[in-house]
Amino acid sequence: DRRELQRRLDVEKWIDGRLEELYSGMEADMPDEINIDELLELESEEERSRKIQGLLKSCGKPDFIQELLAKLQGLHRQPGLRQPSPSHDGSLSPLQDRARTAHP
């Protein structure tokens, strides 16, 4: 449904924006990706929290984790939703991909 897709897009944009803030000047430490579907597959918020903490080990911002967990509530997995990246390098996060393909 369209509302669900918009909500998911909003969460993905929020994640990208917050990661830019949290890792400003430390882009090499930024996680490659925070996969919403992988988080939604986990059984509990505790498991999701541990997974996010593992991805953000160099960040140390518990507020981000709590905010992300709150935003995930009510979202559902969307198999096949991911779009190909502009650089066609699936190993890059959307943020890294945009930086790589941005024109100077």
TrEMBL record:
Residues 75-104 are annotated as: Disordered. The keyword Phosphoprotein applies. It is found in: Cytoplasm. InterPro entries: CPI-17, CPI-17_sf. Residues 84-94 have a biased composition (Polar residues). Pfam families: PP1_inhibitor. Its main location: cytoplasm. Keywords: Cytoplasm, Phosphoprotein, Protein phosphatase inhibitor. GO terms for molecular function: protein serine/threonine phosphatase inhibitor activity. It comes from the Eukaryota. GO terms for cellular component: cytoplasm. Inhibitor of PPP1CA. Has over 1000-fold higher inhibitory activity when phosphorylated, creating a molecular switch for regulating the phosphorylation status of PPP1CA substrates and smooth muscle contraction. Belongs to the PP1 inhibitor family. PANTHER family: PROTEIN PHOSPHATASE 1 INHIBITOR POTENTIATED BY PROTEIN KINASE C, PROTEIN PHOSPHATASE 1 REGULATORY SUBUNIT 14A. This is Protein phosphatase 1 regulatory subunit 14. It comes from Macaca fascicularis.
